[in-house]
Every structure is written in structure tokens, then in C-alpha cells.
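Objective 1.3, modelling of assemblies. Example input:
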Amino acid sequence: MPELPEVETVARGLRTFLPGRRILGVRLGKSDFIDDPAALERDLPGRRIAGVERRAKFIAIRLEKDGAAQAPVAVVVHLGMTGQLTAHRPEQPAEKHTHVFFTLDDGRELRYTDPRRFGRMLVADERQLEAVLGRLGADPLEISLREFRRLAGRRMMVKALLLDQSALGGVGNIYADESLWRARVHPRRRASALKEAEVRRLYRGLRRVLTAAIRLGGSTISNYRDAEGRPGEFQLRHRVYDREGEHCFRCGARIRRCVVAGRSSFFCPRCQKK
DNA sequence: CGTTGAACCTGTTTGC
DNA sequence: TGCAAACAGGTTCAAC
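Predicted structure (C-alpha cells):
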């Protein structure tokens, strides 16, 4: 579910109430998506939260320094397909599939809910943090056109390139399709075969889609919610994603679906020629 | 190196 | 209506 705009929205929401809070306790339900569940329960209580960062689709909840030499410096969360990080009052009954409860010193509770458990969570020291985040490619909102052009020299299908987290960090299936539609580029084209004008359109399309989506709080397809439990609105602006058989907003042709890089891919057969 | 398919897990939708 | 198959925003790994 959550791609860069959704994760960014969650991170911004968390940033409004988490910094400065102390974690009083941690309770776990199912924990098979946590790298070291015991460390989570053992090392977090008593620690104060310094800030919240997003890298690609990861959220890093930074902890204030603690005397211990190799104390954890962050709680790292990836929401997978169905993960949610939301604040609740402790008396609110937990939603089904809520697997982690962080008790905070302001009387609230930060909860992690994830039906499919494709998400991931770990408490990381500096080295582990680097191991996880260091493999990620450039942020699509920060990369230069020059650098993007270099990535586009690869011979793989352009959609696979957009989805490759070690090339670009944060793009997922929805925003890959939406940016390709804006750029009028077929998802199966080889990146290295794109003309300069196409590379430029893709670069701009990607930035525009992502910033517009962040402005609307992301896309809610089924269960995405922000840190306060609210859905996003960008799904109302999707031009191709999940619109098979409907009319292209630009030319009126019927949107088609095919599989690229193992993922459903929606495109306009008239605007996006192979 | 690039591509495909399977695996991880649960819920919902689709098709017979 | 019932049941099985297909599919879902993500990542990783093995095999070709």
C-alpha cells in the first residue's frame, strides 16, 4: 500500500506529536515481522524520541542519545502493504491485527497494525540503521535530472527501474504507473531506449505526481490511514491505476492492464506507445 | 545483468 | 449460495 507519499504523510503526522515523548512501555502481539522482538521490549522503555525521518518507504523514529556505547539510535518501520502507525487513546479497543503498542508519556499510545505482516520493524544501532537505509537509491524528489538520466541508462524495462528501490527509493506500483502515464511512456519500454524528451517528461511527471499526492495526504485504496487515522484523497486523482477499461483522461482510449515486472500495470495504449 | 516466479500472510473480490 | 481462484499498495531470493 504505502508508497512515498503515504509514508511521507505518516511521517509528517508522527512528527506533530512524537518528538520529545518518552516511551514508557512496549507490548507485542504477533512479532514475526520484527527483526529482534526481545530487543524492542528490552531497549525502548525509558527512551525519549528525538525526531521522525523518512527515507524512501522507511520511517526512522530517532531516539535521543543514551549513555550506553552501542545503544539503539532509532526504531525503523516499513509499512509493507498494509501497515499502519497510528496514535490512539489507550482505552480505545485495539483494531484487529494490531501487533505493537508503544505507551507514551503523554497518555497516548502509538500502535502498529498490519493484517498481512509484510511490514518490518527493528530497533537499530548506527550500524544497523546504515545497513538498512544504505541500500536505498536516491529520493525521487531530491534527485537531479542529471542523476536521473544516468539511472535511465540501464537496459531494464522502465517500470522495473522505477520500482527498483536501490535505484530510486520510494516509488511503488501506483506512482510508477501514474508518472509513466503523465510522461506518455509505455511501462515496457527499455529505460536506455528512452529519448531525452521522454526521460525529462518522466522525471517531471514523477515529481509532480509525488508532490501532488503528498499534498492530498496520499492514496487510500483499501486500508491506508495516516498517523491520525485519516484516509488520503489522491486516489480520486489517479489517471490510470486500477482504471482498466475506463477512458483515458487525455485521449479517451480505454485504459489497458498488463503485467510488467510481476506487477499489474495500467496504461493508455494510445498515449503510451511501446 | 535482467527477468520471472515464488514466497511471506490475510482479506476481499471475482468467477464458475 | 458456496467454494475456489485470483488479486492486492512491498520486498527478497532462487533460477534461468
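The CA atoms of residues 136 and 166 of chain A lie 5 Å apart.
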